[in-house]
Amino acid sequence: RRHGVQLPAARGDGAGVLFRGRGPVLIPTPPARGDHTVDEGPSDEELRQQYGDRIEVQPMDRMRKMTAEHMVRSKATSAHVTSFAEADVTGLVQLREANKEAFREREGVKLTYTPFFVKAAVEALREHPLLNASVEGDKIVIKHDFHVGIAVAIGNKGLLAPVIRNAGDYNVSGLARKAANVAERARNKELQPDELQGGTFTVTNIGSLGSLMGTPIINQPQVGILATGAIQKRPVVVENDGLGDAISVRHMMYLSLSYDHRIIDGAMGSSFLQRVVTELESFSVDADLF
């Protein structure tokens, strides 16, 4: 006690002990930033002594070091849980195929699936505001603007997540233009620092890289990230009016949502995913994109 203030006593496990009343109270200390930095590893010579000469030692570049630090810190901060769902996106595929040429001529950009995924995520966020939030100590900060990050692969170097600000204000065409613009500038290293910050939710289209599904790591300080898997034709059981069940070839995809279990439980995570599925399955070949 100094000047009437109770001070935590030092402990070797990174926690503090506050003496209150007659007994001690354990106060957990959050991980320090330095705990998640990438330390300098053994020398090349030491590594060859350990593994032999038939190895190649490749130093991490700055981008990879920053990604590694960010990912480890995220896992140490959030209690990660991942839920999965499946969607029949046959109507969406037909819509894109029917419009992609005209869309490119009119808008000057390719019509990819990403704007549809972002649109579906925003609609789900409107009904599940806790997934558009951050955790600040014992406070939950719910954001009323939808600033959606989209993961962009930068060659073999890694991923960046430029942010589409106010994504809820755009239709599919507007989102397509925004997504194409930030993705191109990300690959050309033309993004400004503030375009990589301030996101409230992230969508990563892992299907564009061939993955069926994944368990993405949350982009701090966000509390959720949606991964959209590859779209594949599969035989599935469908209901035909008057004919009962039938087997049909449909375009199917898996969705996964990683979320922070500190504030989001499994029921909300599953409800969010089902809302995304409903939105994706609502697209049809005659939908208006413009």
Major beta sheet summary = 7 strands, mixed
CATH topology of the largest domain: Chloramphenicol Acetyltransferase
The CATH class of the largest domain turns out to be Alpha Beta
Query: What proportion of the residues form beta strands (DSSP E)?
Result: 25-35%
What is the CATH homology-level superfamily of the largest domain? Chloramphenicol acetyltransferase-like domain
| CATH architectural designation of the largest domain | 2-Layer Sandwich
The end-to-end distance, rounded to whole angstroms, is 68 Å
Number of helices: 6
Mean pLDDT: 87
Secondary-structure-derived class:
alpha+beta
- The global form is globular
Report the strand count: 14
What helical percentage do the residues reach? 25-40%
Summed up, the domain count is 2
- Return the string of H and E elements: EEEHHEHHEEEEEEHEEEEH
Q: Which ranges are low-confidence, i.e. pLDDT below 50, for 5 or more consecutive residues?
A: 1-31
Radius of gyration over all CA atoms, rounded: 23 Å
